[in-house]
Amino acid sequence: MSNEEIYKNNPLHGKKLEQILEELVDFYGWGILFAYININCFKTNPSIESSCKFLRKTQWALEKVESFYMYKLKNLPKPDDTQFDLPPRDRIVPLNQKPRTPRELSLEDAERVRYNKQKANLTRSIRQKASTAEDPWGMSRRK
């Protein structure tokens, strides 16, 4: 199986950033995007053009938008830890996972989601620090 075939099930495969943003804005609107992703270009005079310009320059923000697209709009199951560490465009989506109907999101729910993300990031950070403490120079990862 070629790399092309492996990544073809990823909803981001072959999608341009403008297409992704247009789909997100058409379905959720700028307010929901800002509430869930918390990127200022979605709050202050938002437009597809200005958002694309910012996202192309800012890798972390682009990855947040692409993750939101995959796991909220396309409603795919969350990735495992090994796939989570990869950028969304590089993640392998198993062939048995197909996009589903988009999740219904609200501004009220955004605060709860933000709290849960902070908690998960803290847990992940603690796990990474523990593994780094056991192998501070990353020798076990070298081949």
List keywords for this structure.
143 residues, mainly alpha
Describe this structure in words.
With 143 residues, the chain is an all-alpha fold. The protein has seven helices and no strands.
Give the SSE map:
Blueprint: H1 3-7, H2 17-27, H3 30-37, H4 48-57, H5 59-73, H6 81-84, H7 107-134
In angstroms, what is the radius of gyration? 17 Å
Overall pLDDT level = 87
- Overall geometric form: globular
Number of strands: 0
Helix percentage range: 55-70%
Which sequence of SSEs, written as H and E, runs from N to C? HHHHHHH
- Main beta sheet, described? none
Q: Label the structural class.
A: mainly alpha
Task: Give the count of helical stretches.
Answer: 7
Strand content: under 5%
Low-confidence stretches: none
What's the N-to-C terminus distance? 25 Å
Short account of what is shown:
Helix content is 57%, strand content 0%. By secondary structure, it is mostly helical. The model has no long low-confidence stretch (mean pLDDT 87).
